[in-house]
Amino acid sequence: MYQEQEDLDILFRRTTPEAVLKKIRSGSVLVKPEDSATVGFDDYAYSAYDRYSLLNLSEYTATEVHLRKEALEDSVARMKVGGFFSTLVLYADKVLRYDGETLVCRSEEIPNWRSIYLRLGQDIFTTALLAWHSCRNCSDLMRNRKMTWPAVLRTDDVRLNNILKRGLAENHFHLHGSTQSFALSWACLMNHPAMIHTYLNSEPMFRKNLVYNASSGVTDNVMDWQRRLLYAAMIRALLFECCLGKFEGGRVTELQEQFAGFDVLPLAADVKEHTELLRQMYGSKFSQADGRKVCLDYAICSRFYCVDAADHNRLLGGERCLLYQCFCRQFSGRAARAESDLLYLYLLIKSNFRGELVQVNGRRGFQNFLEYQNRKNQLFEQRAEYWTESLRLSVCSGIRENHLKSLEARIMPKKSKGAMYRAIRDLDGRIDFAEKNLPYFYVVHFAKEPMEKPGDDDHGLAVRPRNHKVRRRIRQQAEALVRYMRLPRCEDQRVWGVDACSMEIGCRPETFATEMRYLRVCSRMGVENPWYGKPDRFCEKIGITYHVGEDFLDIADGLRAVDEAIRFLCMEKGDRIGHGLVLGIDPEEYYQNKKNSIYLRRQDYLDNLVWILYRSLEFGIEIRENVRADMRNQAEQMLYEIYGKYISTLTTGNPLELYYRSWQLRGDHPDLYRTGRFSNQERLSSRVYDNCKVPGGLRRYSTRYEALQPYRDNDDIAGLYSRYHFDDGVKSEGYRVIDFPVKKEYIDIMGAMQHAVCREIFEKGICVECNPTSNVLIGTFRTYKKHPILGFNKFHLEEDCRHMNLQVSLNTDDLGVFDTSLENEYALMLNVVRDKRHEEGNYNDDAVYEYLEYLRMNGMNMAFRPIEF
To answer: 260, 301, 488, 572: least CB-packed within 10 angstroms?
Structure first.
């Protein structure tokens, strides 16, 4: 199965379109006529296969690779028709099942299916298989049916499907990243080719390819994306006309002439005129909220299938219809050689461009994901009809296809209450236009940004705290959100939670501490805040979730971030941690992958060492005295190097202990320490924000306030904290990079600290949002089998009930970037857990289904807005 996946990847993605275009220009055979009964490998296909065998199949010798290539040719030859398009059918028939009505994935094949469809998409396989069945039955199976099956196929596991039908909660769903971004972008560009130049020229991020393919060098004459997409738009229009029967019989030469004419001088105006004519003549028109009727895709054509304007997946039907009709012509022998060659070129350009919007490049880390995330909706969101359609595909389709009883749609905050109100009203209006009364609500997530590099700040470091740009922005956004939530015209509470997302390296939880506390207090107005007047309307308590422990440079760094989020944000029972991978990954494997060498900013290294030394004592973790002494010596040296002469002026205790206590104050707003001491001048302030500048509030009514107040009143401790934020020398020295070797003792300590932080989460009743596919593609582990969810919670899976089970839920994160669905996440986990237990000789599958039912109920109970069961 692995070999077949690599064959398909080479044929339909890895081969460069320019190489195929060169063959078409020269008149070489790419896809042979049906009577040849052999796969049409040309010289480039052979060389591409060999080249990629070095990348993907390095465990094989050249002879073994050649034998596999011959086996592929033999298997295609037995298909008799379709050239190497039949390889799609050969594979799809093994992993998919068609019962005459619907297509589903065979449950036991879902990992294999996931591996290849992530790279090529599902539609190329589903449409090829349906076309093959149509040709075998000598009838058009889809003529009177819809083309709107789910974007991600369900499995044939009846028991799992029955569990999921009881209802799910999606608790980690980034609204604008959870639509079918590629399908929308492709439909928009193919139907509005005049915009290709405008879109790609105005977006510099598309000048960089996220996926690298092999090239034969200058002979490939690799084009930029603008030119490639113009070719795709022209070819698509010609293929659609082929399906309409325009180039039958002796008119095949006209097809060749039209493409040749375009090939000589590709002009956007020519393609625009061609596609616009097809849109006017054949494309179905759909009503919009403003009363207009628009064509989303000329391939959404009632001549070929039953177009349902009310279906939430209606946009997906056009491309599926085109591919299905093209494959029908291939497998029935009606397609001429020129048509087959153009179809192949079109599929290559499409799959290559898909890799620029769906994360398939195999690289790890949040920065790689961020590059995909930043471009996900850039190519269609400027056109209102596609923007509206994106919400139909994300919210409406997501709720219906995944049996959702609750969906958290995460959106960005705005700078004013009016802008917040208008943004939510606009989203609600577009979604309600498609379907009313859906069970969704909003979680507002504030964006993190790494700390600015010392020296890049024109205003000087000594007058600005760390991450001052983020702090200034999120304060404005938080105050605007509070004013929005108190608007009397907002009858239905639309915001039920707040979050902080995006890249966490360089932006610690302390940055969001005041705002998160402020938002929570304001959501309890009139109940717990006697100093503030009664609100205009009552707002239910909002929940707090925080992206943390997903992207980190060292396990200690990630664990400290989780601990800081819990401590500084004052997280409570029912609050949630997003991802939290650092809590469950294998330390030994993690450091082995890092070659037992870690690179960090010196400030982070110092903070990690001090945190380990003193937090381990509080956790009751034993560290050998010689190891502890070595860590203490390193921490002292780093402390003196960063904080310099100030350390010699400390008078009240051990410098490291004082520094640890100053770390405990990082939940306090840095403005209170601008003078070098703790300033309580704002204690008498009636402003809620000012009273939230320390955990528990500046007024003395909280044990948290009382516990930390001695540290605030100590000038040495307050001074260390002040210098952490306002001393330019400290920030410059701390920004420098240090590398340190990782020893066995350190790895063991990390394992113990993981367990201790998990216990803290367990005891506080904090939940963890797990996103398996997102975590596999971003995290440091490579397979679903190593996902830490089984370390977080094993309820039903083992007889020993003493295991500490955290509250966890399954979610999708940015399903458009990762090409998944919530049901698919459950199906993947079913397969992983079941196979893992079978390998261990445990065949009690009942426990696995009970575990998934338990996860389903966990997700429902973790939702911020109560769900009616």
So the answer is: 488
The span from the CA of 768 to the CA of 764, in Å, is 12
Residue 702 has a CB neighbour count (10 Å cut-off) of 15
What residue spans of 738-844 are helical by DSSP H? Answer: 744-764, 772-778, 789-792, 815-818, 822-839
Packing angle of the helix pair 845-862, 822-839 (nearest 10 deg): 140
What pLDDT does residue 195 have?
86
Residues 634-690 have pLDDT tens digits of: 999 999 999 988 998 888 889 999 999 999 999 999 999 999 999 875 554 558 888
Render pLDDT for 705-764 as a digit per residue (tens, 0 to 9).
678 999 999 999 999 999 999 999 999 999 999 999 999 999 999 999 999 999 999 999
String of b and e for 174-194 (b: at least 16 CB within 10 Å)? bbbbbbbbbbbbbbbbbbbbe
Tens digit of pLDDT for each residue in 675-714? Answer: 999 987 555 455 888 889 998 876 554 566 678 999 999 9
Q: Are 167 and 405 in contact (CB under 8 A)?
A: yes
End-to-end Cα distance, the chain: 42
- Find residue 597's DSSP bridge partners: 741
Distance CA 845, CA 176 (A): 37
CA dihedral 420, 176, 322, 196 (to 10 degrees): 80
Phi, psi of 320 (to 5 degrees): -65, -40
Please give the C-alpha separations between residue 414 and each of 256, 411, 476, 494, 689, in angstroms, as whole numbers. Answer: 53, 10, 9, 15, 18
The answer to whether the beta carbons of residues 353 and 190 sit under 8 Å apart is no
Residues 6+ apart with CB under 8 A from 325: 131, 243, 304
Residue of 611, 515, 648 whose CA lies nearest to 569: 515
Pick from 231, 235, 232, 7: which is nearest to 119 by CA?
7
By the 8 A CB rule, do 690 and 524 touch?
A: no
> Is the Cα torsion angle 209, 212, 216, 217 positive or negative in sign?
positive
| pLDDT for 33 beyond 50 | no
- The answer to whether 184 and 353 are in contact (CB under 8 A) is no
Kindly state the DSSP code that residue 503 receives in the 8-state scheme.
Answer: -
Mean pLDDT of 394-409: 96
Q: What's the CA gap between 790 and 578, in Å, rounded?
A: 16
Q: 553-607: per-residue pLDDT in tens?
A: 999 999 999 999 999 999 999 999 999 999 999 999 999 999 999 999 999 999 9
CA-to-CA distance for 660 and 75, rounded, in angstroms?
67
Contact yes or no for 852/829 (Cβ under 8 A): yes
Q: 288, 390, 401, 483: which is closest to 816 by C-alpha? A: 390
- Report the SS3 class of residue 544: strand
Closest CA to 587 of 791, 331, 305: 791
| Contact call for residues 150 and 157 (beta carbons, < 8 A) | no
Residue 513 is given by DSSP the state: H
Going along 602-741, which residue ranges are E strands?
A: 737-741
Q: Which one has a higher pLDDT value, 46 or 153?
A: 153
φ and ψ at residue 365, rounded to 5 degrees = 100, 155
Write phi, then psi, for 168 (nearest 5 degrees). Answer: -130, 160
* CA separation for the pair 477, 175 (Å, rounded): 19
Compute the average pLDDT of residues 839-846: 93
Structure tokens at 644: 């310099």
The answer to whether the beta carbons of residues 800 and 806 sit under 8 Å apart is no
Please state whether the predicted TM-score (pTM) of the whole model is above 0.70: yes
In percent, how much of the chain has pLDDT > 70?
87
d(CA 376, CA 357): 6
Residue 240 contacts residue 206 (beta carbons within 8 Å)? no
Task: Give the CA dihedral 295, 296, 299, 303, nearest 10 degrees.
Answer: -40
**169-189: average pLDDT:** 95
Residue 807 has pLDDT above 50, yes or no: yes
